[in-house]
Design brief:
The protein is of the alpha/beta class. It is about 35% helix and about 10% strand. The protein folds into 2 domains: about 5-15 and about 115-235, Rossmann fold; about 15-115, no CATH class. It has a 5-stranded parallel sheet, with helices on both faces. Helix 1 (about 20-30) packs across helix 2 (about 45-55).
Amino acid sequence: MAITGVLFDFSGTLMRIESPEEWLRGGLAELGAGPELLPDGDLGAAAARLARAGAQPGGPAPERVPDHLSALWDHRDRSADEHRAAYTGLSRQVELGSDALHDVLYERHMTPAAWRPYPDTAEVLRALRERGVRVAVVSNIGWDLRPVLRAHGLERWTDTSVLSYEHGVQKPDPRLFALACERIGVGPEAALMVGDDRRADGGAAALGCAVHFVDHLPVDQRPVGLLPVLELAAGVAQDS
């Protein structure tokens, strides 16, 4: 059956968060401070510690989740409060010289300046719209990503966004994919889910959607990762 609707994950699929170093540098700047605020004055080392802790939403996964945060981590995308508490909790495992910096960093990751589209994102979304293919963004997230899409000129090429925190349901729960299909008026058998997480995004297969995976790479290392979606949406749909 031809694909008439495409569901896209957000982070690591359509867009990528800035590097941990850029994230920390930006947070310091918002505080009016520089690396000298950090305990050892070494921005790179502090950013690496934050990355290992998994403190940056959209960034590297934590090497280890502390026991007191494990339950919260498992359900972090069900609500805005849980999302903030999980990530600021991980951030606070790293000494940064200012407690306020942890909250500043969390706020920064929700800004358009912290995100970059993959090079072929706009091209693929625009081509799908021109072909009459309906598009939904389906994300495990704790905040409203629509302003980020809008600021980068991408929201106009999407029909809806279905965000876990707004519904209290996380991927791979098929209910989130079912809601997205319902909103764009496409049956699961005519929908393709595109994402970078085989467990979370792969949950769409249980609903009957075709699934296609991309690599969660830095923007400059994945110039054409989404282009195969255009061929799949032309009717060559298959699991990959």
